[in-house]
Amino acid sequence: MLNSVKGMALTFFSTLKGLRKPVTQQYPAKPTPVKERFMGFPALTWDDKVPEPFCTGCMVCVRNCPTQCMSATMKDNPLFAEGKSARRKIIDQFEINLNRCILCGICVELCNFDAIVMSHEHEMSTYQRNGDRADLPALLEIGKKYQQTTNWQPPSAKTKATAAPSPKPQPAAAAPGETKS
Ligand code: SF4
Ligand code: SF4
């Protein structure tokens, strides 16, 4: 008898628990937010100060990509000739076949120009075999979205700011009557 009551009580409370707000996320109508450190597809960053891409087309990422899914070409930067940019060369064409990208982040680690990030973009499935070949405008668009939503700052600028030398300590003032040796 007691066991029956216990069992009914358990069922009753389980039912009540089930009536609470569901934890199920109604995807894709309501996408699950990703964490800040989430690594989605790689994307190119935009330098608002100049304005132009950070990417100089140096090819370091292209040469080291383990799946060889990237390609890039550079050109002389017209803004450098006008004295408006410090980048002598600038990216001309860039493509990443995102279907082949394994999201390893090596390209981001190796880039010396803060030009590429692992964005939060991850919903880009298509029905075409080569439907996810992202070109320069597409990569910059993803990158700009990432920069805006995360308030992105160039990592090298952050490193410089934290490594800035502290002001030199001033020598203590000599006490009255004390002479410096
Ligand atoms: S993303 Fe960085 S490493 Fe890759 S080509 Fe551009 S500047 Fe070079
Ligand atoms: S994340 Fe890895 S696989 Fe993808 S483009 Fe960068 S280096 Fe290549």
Query: Order of strands in the sheet with the most strands?
Result: 4-5-7
Name the poorly predicted regions: none
**Ions and ligands:** iron/sulfur cluster
Which structural category do the helix and sheet elements fall into? alpha+beta
CATH topology of the domain at 54-149: Alpha-Beta Plaits
* Count of DSSP-assigned helices: 6
Beta content = 15-25%
Share in helix: 25-40%
Q: State mean pLDDT (0 to 100 scale).
A: 89
Please give a quick description of this structure.
The chain has 181 residues and is α+β, with helices and mostly antiparallel strands. Helix content is 30%, strand content 16%.
Description:
By secondary structure, the protein is α+β, with helices and mostly antiparallel strands. It has a domain at 54-149: Alpha-Beta Plaits. It is built from 6 helices and 7 strands. The chain has a 3-stranded antiparallel β-sheet. It has a two-stranded antiparallel sheet with strand order 1-6. The radius of gyration is 27 Å and the shape is elongated. The chain binds iron/sulfur cluster (SF4) (2 copies). One iron/sulfur cluster binds next to α2.
Q: Can you lay out the helices and strands and say which pair or pack?
A:
Layout: H1 2-18, E1 42-44, E2 46-47, E3 52-53, H2 60-64, E4 70-76, H3 78-81, E5 89-97, H4 106-110, E6 116-118, E7 133-135, H5 136-150, H6 155-162
Antiparallel strand pairs: 1-6, 2-3, 4-5, 5-7
The chain binds iron/sulfur cluster (2 copies).
One iron/sulfur cluster (SF4) binds next to α4.
